Amino acid sequence: MLIKNREEIATTHLRKKALDIIEEGIRQVLPLSLIKSTVKYNPSLKILNISNIRYDLSQGRIFIIGGGKASGNMAEALEKIIRPENITDGVVNCVNNDYKTTKIKIVKAGHPIPDKRGIKGVKEMLSLKKKHSINKNDLIIGLISGGGSALMPYPVEGITLKDKQEFTKLLLTVGAEIGEINILRKHLSKIKGGKLGYFFSPTPLVSLIISDVVGNRLDFIASGPTVPDSSTFSDAYNILKKYNLVSKAPKRVVDFLKKKRNLKETPKRLDNCKNLIIGDNKMALKAMAKKAKAMGFTPCIITSTQTGDPNLVSYKRAREIIKGKYRDCNVILIGGETTPKLPKNCGKGGRNQHYAANSLLSMEKYPGRWTLVAFSTDGSDFLPNVAGAIVDNNSLISARKKGIDIQSYLKRYDSNTLLKKIGNSLIITGPTGTNVCDIILYILRR
């Protein structure tokens, strides 16, 4: 069972159905399922097929590199399919190292704040080239997933790990979008923005990618270590100005981006690299829609690219529902990732918890029963032990009976405390092993 506290929170028929649908969506984007459907290996002929791309390895070897929240599970799945004896060596950075791999070393590294363990892992990946004299007859498989930006740090000369740690915290605090954060990361890194792919050139490198980026921009996922980069040093510096960080960011970072813009830019072309998205938010939503239909519901997928402030977006969706925009559906599915703009003295919570908490008030005038789930597919809605939240009409009734001032908690972004007080609201899964943004589900009974 994916949801560990299912019995506690599945208090109504609609809640049970909602959790069934959510779990089906996650199951379909787990690494083992995705890798199995993508990779086929014939050991006798030494032919590897990856998404219908044929690699003849009769004169070459296989190496594995990569990083991300799902990359440890991806490595474990890949070893099962190719078999350890057919892999020469490999290094992958992940949030923990309790995976059953033989040839692929799993390095535990820091997330969301990068640490020295991550740098050590990246150096070990790069050392494979010289250690094994990797050449154009070999094949490197990259296992890339969300979280790879933080898990694969390697600062440029002159920038310290402490600088990057402070800078990352600062960017998260001001509400910078993930794409903007990644542009800055690319220009402060030795491997991001296509530099990892360039380092191993001319050896063929195919990256298997589980996308946690809205819209699936390859150069944004894990800051695109094997993808040509269109951004520039000027773009990076302009983001500092946009968020008024020129005077607040570490001085070495500002000086580097301001004065070193004439340095060689990130690679704009990588002929040796192929990048394949094998799992994304759309896949999870489609699986959920199929499950809902089999259960007798009429589902509709609104979007897989929802962004914006969770306050504004949750209110907008509630207005659309109440006004009958989706009257032909009784299960509404949404994917994407919102970005809260936090006050200075904010409380505890996460974007999905806040979306659900705000919906208590914005869905109040819906003429019927409703249930909503807002869920982070990696199992961590900012807080590592909470995946998201489930709320419904009864949640609002309970809050009112307990005399809880919902608006006061929303104002200080203290959704976790609010939902704990209401009860039967927080979803606990632990790490799911995948990461494809967020999924939101409404079940409606008029």
Fill in the keyword field for this structure.
single chain, alpha/beta, glycerate kinase, domain 1, Rossmann fold, 2 domains, six-stranded mixed β-sheet
Q: What is the average per-residue confidence, as pLDDT, rounded to a whole number?
A: 94
| Through-space gap between termini | 30 Å
The CATH homologous superfamily name of the largest domain equals: Glycerate kinase, MOFRL-like N-terminal domain
Poorly predicted parts: none
State the total count of DSSP E strands. Answer: 15
C-alpha Rg (nearest Å): 23 Å
Q: Number of helical segments?
A: 17
Domain module tally: 2
At the first level of CATH, what is the class of the largest domain?
A: Alpha Beta
Structural class: alpha/beta
CATH architecture descriptor of the largest domain:
3-Layer(aba) Sandwich
The third-level CATH topology of the largest domain is Rossmann fold
Largest sheet: 6 strands, parallel
- Relative helix content: 25-40%
Strand order of the largest sheet: 6-5-4-7-8-9
Q: What is the percentage of strand-forming residues?
A: 15-25%
User: Per the principal axes of the C-alpha atoms, what is the gross shape?
Assistant: globular
Quick overview:
The chain is of the alpha/beta class and 446 residues long. The protein has helices at residues 6-9, 13-27, 31-38, 71-82, 116-131, 148-151, 161-174, 178-187, 195-200, 233-242, 251-259, 281-294, 310-322, 351-362, 393-401, 406-411, 415-422, and strands at residues 39-42, 47-50, 53-56, 62-67, 89-94, 104-108, 139-145, 205-210, 273-279, 299-306, 331-336, 369-376, 388-392, 426-427, 438-445. The strands form three sheets. It has a six-stranded parallel sheet with strand order 6-5-4-7-8-9, sandwiched between helices.
